[in-house]
């Protein structure tokens, strides 16, 4: 153990996480770091990940990927938000749209002015003031930076794409930058007697792959972080009770929507994700409340087009590794933990883990304070996302099934209980520095789930009534005009980034 730089990294596993890690490290460290990746074609990948959040654009920009080429390669479409159907009550629908809503006035967030208008009897939904929500509703898309010459921000977008094709694309990128790929099944990890650090990954054919630093991307198995280093797993099933998913792709049966759909079912929920060449569908469910056959039947009866393959079942335990970095090994992707794809956060968590890893990249001393800080930040990020997901389940008024009644009755983590309480009081939302979801994200899900503030901020009363009407009316007009001028989503794709 000394202050020498890390010279070699071995990435175990080549799913989305493994190839994202290979591409980012190759780009960040160039030839100064020797990077090898070992994966097994026989074992394969999970490969369901299809919906993302806008931060994905940062990693693509860091890698220097051309966005249109990336979309062609991964059969991608644009995503403006997530539509939640039947979550709080049967028949409900709201969108968690990316980007801002309205404009702040003075020091008060926009939604306090909207709450005042509601209190005065105006009925326009909050989402009338969201450019993303209006564009999504009308199936429109363009890469708009600003709304005309107004202070309103433009479109904020992410993508739907085939995660297996993304991994393949990044593999070509990484190999072109010197990453060496090895085929083989990992059997074991050899550890140093004096400190328990990993010395080498041992393949089934007996070959030893040595490195200074190891990145565990072996999926749910967590072969190194759990199998060798026994990091431990924190189970969050008591708050997020779904533990299985069944997925199937189908043909397009309608418009190519620029948003994900998440429709609550009797004991879980169903996703619908439009790609260029097919629609990805899946039913996430709670095995204590519904069997596999019925879950598959629910999925198949809610497809928009003909299925393209056989339904595929997956099992998972929601939670996180107690430590994501142990000794000389960091876990990324499913090896580090899993939360259902309700807010499309898994690929983002790989990306943010990588961002942290690059900025905290160690030397061979492996400073314990650095490792502790990495683990602290990772835990914080996971827990805040967990709380956001719990809000969708907990704040429901459905009485039609035991599953939803149990979710409404459960006790939630303290940080979430405090957030709900603050919002109920006077619409206040506070967010800590490293938290992923924005105030506007929390606002939409709170309101969508019928958590209503009792009051609004008193500063909103400072605006004369005609001025309030004018302010709100002007924003709606600007948004309507901007949306009218946008092309249809599929036309935009056909023009700029359709796969051949
Ligand atoms: P995997 O894809 O499992 O890859 C593991 C790798 O390790 C493979 O290459 C495998 O060959 C290798 N490996 C394993 N064991 C061995 C061994 N013994 N020897 C050699 N190699 C080995 N994320 C999103 O962001 N958006 C979504 O919409 C989304 N939807 C999801 C839906 C479901 C139902 C599930 C389960 C996940 C979803 N995810 C989503 C998560 C997303 O799929 C994963 O985060 C992402 O694919 C990363 O997976 P991974 O690379 O960590 O693991």
In short:
35% of the residues lie in helices and 19% in strands. With 500 residues, the protein is an alpha+beta fold.
Descriptive report:
The chain is 35% helix and 19% strand. It has two domains: 164 residues, 3-Layer(bba) Sandwich (FAD/NAD(P)-binding domain), CATH 3.50.50; 277 residues, FAD/NAD(P)-binding domain, CATH 3.50.50. With 500 residues, it is of the alpha+beta class. The chain contains 15 helices and 21 strands. It has a seven-stranded mixed β-sheet with strand order 5-4-14-15-16-13-17. Helix 1 packs parallel to helix 9 and helix 9 packs antiparallel against helix 10. The model has no long low-confidence stretch (mean pLDDT 96). Bound molecules: flavin-adenine dinucleotide. The site of flavin-adenine dinucleotide has 39 residues, from helix 1, strand 2, strand 13 and helix 9.
Topology, element by element:
Elements: E1 8-12, H1 16-29, E2 34-39, H2 56-63, H3 67-74, E3 77-79, E4 81-85, E5 93-97, H4 110-119, H5 131-137, E6 158-160, H6 163-176, E7 180-183, E8 186-191, E9 198-203, E10 208-210, E11 213-216, H7 223-228, E12 233-235, E13 244-250, E14 260-265, E15 268-274, E16 279-285, H8 292-301, E17 312-315, E18 319-321, E19 325-326, E20 329-331, E21 337-338, H9 346-359, H10 368-394, H11 402-409, H12 414-426, H13 439-448, H14 465-484, H15 489-496
Parallel strand pairs: 1-2, 1-11, 2-7, 4-14, 11-20
Antiparallel strand pairs: 3-6, 4-5, 8-9, 9-10, 12-18, 13-16, 13-17, 14-15, 15-16, 18-21, 19-20
Helix pairs in contact: 1-6, 1-9, 9-10
The protein binds flavin-adenine dinucleotide.
């Amino acid at each position: 153990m000394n202050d020498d730089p890390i010279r070699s990294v071995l990435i175990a596993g080549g799913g989305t996480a493994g190839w994202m890690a290979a591409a980012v490290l190759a780009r960040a460290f160039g030839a100064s770091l020797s990077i090898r990746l070992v994966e097994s074609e026989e074992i394969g990948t999970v490969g369901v990940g299809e919906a993302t959040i806008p931060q994905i654009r940062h990693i693509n920009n860091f890698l220097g990927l051309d966005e249109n080429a990336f979309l062609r390669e991964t059969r991608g479409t644009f995503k403006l938000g997530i539509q939640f159907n039947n979550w709080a009550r049967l028949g409900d629908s709201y969108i968690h749209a990316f980007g801002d809503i309205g404009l702040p006035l003075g020091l008060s967030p926009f939604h306090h002015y909207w709450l005042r208008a509601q209190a005065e009897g105006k009925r326009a939904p909050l989402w009338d003031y969201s450019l993303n929500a209006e564009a999504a509703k009308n199936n429109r898309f363009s890469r708009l930076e600003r709304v005309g010459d107004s202070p309103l921000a433009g479109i904020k977008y992410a993508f739907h794409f085939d995660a297996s094709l993304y991994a393949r694309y990044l593999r070509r990128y990484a190999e072109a930058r010197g990453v060496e790929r090895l085929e083989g099944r990992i059997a074991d990890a050899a550890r140093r007697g004096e400190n328990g650090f990993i010395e080498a990954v041992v393949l089934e054919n007996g070959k030893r792959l040595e490195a200074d630093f190891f990145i565990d991307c072996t999926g749910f198995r967590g072969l190194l972080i759990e199998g060798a280093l026994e990091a431990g797993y924190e189970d969050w099933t008591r708050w997020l009770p779904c533990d299985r998913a069944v997925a199937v792709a189908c043909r397009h049966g309608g418009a190519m929507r620029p948003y994900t759909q998440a429709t609550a079912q009797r004991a879980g929920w169903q996703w619908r994700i439009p790609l260029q060449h097919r629609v990805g569908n899946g039913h996430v469910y709670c095995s204590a409340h519904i069997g596999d056959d019925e879950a598959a039947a629910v999925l198949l009866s809610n497809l928009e087009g003909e299925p393209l393959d056989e339904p595929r079942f997956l099992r998972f335990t929601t939670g996180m590794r107690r430590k994501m970095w142990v000794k000389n090994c960091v876990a990324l992707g499913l090896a580090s933990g899993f939360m259902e794809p309700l807010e499309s956060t898994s690929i983002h968590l790989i990306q943010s883990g990588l961002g942290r890893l690059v900025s905290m990249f160690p030397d061979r001393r492996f400073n314990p304070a650095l490792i502790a800080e990495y683990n602290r930040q990772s835990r914080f990020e996971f827990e805040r996302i967990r709380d956001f997901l719990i809000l969708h389940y907990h704040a429901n008024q459905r009485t039609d099934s035991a599953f939803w009644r149990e979710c409404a009755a459960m006790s939630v983590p303290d940080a979430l209980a405090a957030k709900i309480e603050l919002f109920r009081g006077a619409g206040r939302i506070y967010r800590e520095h490293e938290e992923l979801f924005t105030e506007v994200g929390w606002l939409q899900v709170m309101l969508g789930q019928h958590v209503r503030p009792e009051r609004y901020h008193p500063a909103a009363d400072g605006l004369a009534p005609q001025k309030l009407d004018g302010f709100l009316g002007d924003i709606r007009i600007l948004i309507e005009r901007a949306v009218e001028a946008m092309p249809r989503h599929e036309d935009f794709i056909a023009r700029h980034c359709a796969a051949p």
